[in-house]
Amino acid sequence: MKNNLSNAKPAFIGCGVMAESMLAGLLKKGLVSAEQITASHPRENRRKELSKKYKIEVFGNNAEAVEKTRDEENSIVLLCVKPQRIKGVLRELKGVVRSNQLILSIVAGAKISTISKVLGNEKIVRTMPNTPSQIGRGMTAWTCTEKVSEQEREQVKSLLTALGHELFVETENMIDMATSLSATGPTYIFLVMEALTDAGVHMGFSRDMSKTLVQEMMLGSVLFAMESDKHPAELRNMVTSPGGTSAEAIYQMEKGSLRTVLSKAVFAAYQKAVALGEKD
Ligand SMILES: NC(=O)c1ccc[n+]([C@@H]2O[C@H](COP(=O)([O-])OP(=O)(O)OC[C@H]3O[C@@H](n4cnc5c(N)ncnc54)[C@H](OP(=O)(O)O)[C@@H]3O)[C@@H](O)[C@H]2O)c1
Questions:
Q1: Residue 95 CB coordination number (10 Å)
Q2: CB 9 within 8 A of CB 31
Q3: Beta-carbon contacts of residue 209 (< 8 Å; ≥ 6 apart)
Q4: What's the CA-to-centroid distance between 80 and ligand 1, angstroms?
Q5: H or E element in which residue 8 lies
Q6: pLDDT digit string (tens) for 12-68?
Q7: 156-188 pLDDT tens trace
Q8: Of 135, 156, 211, 231, whose CB neighbour count within 10 A is largest?
Q9: How many helices (H) and strands (E) does the chain have?
């Protein structure tokens, strides 16, 4: 398949954990070369670390990192700072970013309208990755403004594959929905993992043994569900023998309203994401 990023010039603004995961993924997959990438970071030791490790050019000034490639056709600005920094960074980039330059933001809660208003740009992609992106197994939901062309959308997909899977969603509301499901989701899973491991310890397993049993069971169950075309309830029924252990455990989970608790938790996270966006 043709590499649609072969002429792309990504500029990573704020090169922390997520930006590094993305640029490392792009380089590892051979989608871009080190000469194509620029980045910015306020701390000198971090700049040196990134330049040494990836052989990329890292600027101390955000505007300079954008200016380096702004006049090139396939230049893309990636906003990768923490949410509390985005307003200041947008002010720094005002007048530096071209009005028709592609902007991709991974900043949680930063609305397209806010970015567009400050930068005077209408080609904006908003994404919502998650923590497993750090090992290339992320799930990123993304949406974009109408001005982003088909060709640019394909480039966005390729960029996001550096973090794992990607899914285009039609609206920004769906980004808030994905925030509560796939982006906040790892915390739900980690809590379940922790609770099950503790349950194993409670019965008498060592913590290490319990952790291995739980983690491999969770991983295997997910892979099995993904490979099978069966509904989860069907998969569950397959291992629930009448009067058996699964039936006993599921009875207790239903009695404790596990489904309702999960549904309420996801909806509460969604409402929080919407409320945080409105504060903007
Ligand atoms: N991590 C995740 O799993 C995840 C998931 C979904 C969305 N996100 C979003 O991704 C964005 C980045 O997250 P992250 O985990 O990569 O955070 P991070 O590791 O803190 O990366 C942000 C980087 O920006 C640097 N920085 C601070 N001020 C700056 C400035 N004025 N200009 C340029 N760079 C500046 C920070 O430097 P210092 O190191 O000196 O602070 C840091 O290295 C966030 O907006 C977050 O909402 C992250």
A1: 9
A2: no
A3: 200
A4: 6
A5: none
A6: 999 999 999 999 999 999 999 999 999 999 999 999 999 999 999 999 999 999 999
A7: 999 999 999 999 999 999 999 999 999 999 999
A8: 156
A9: 12, 8
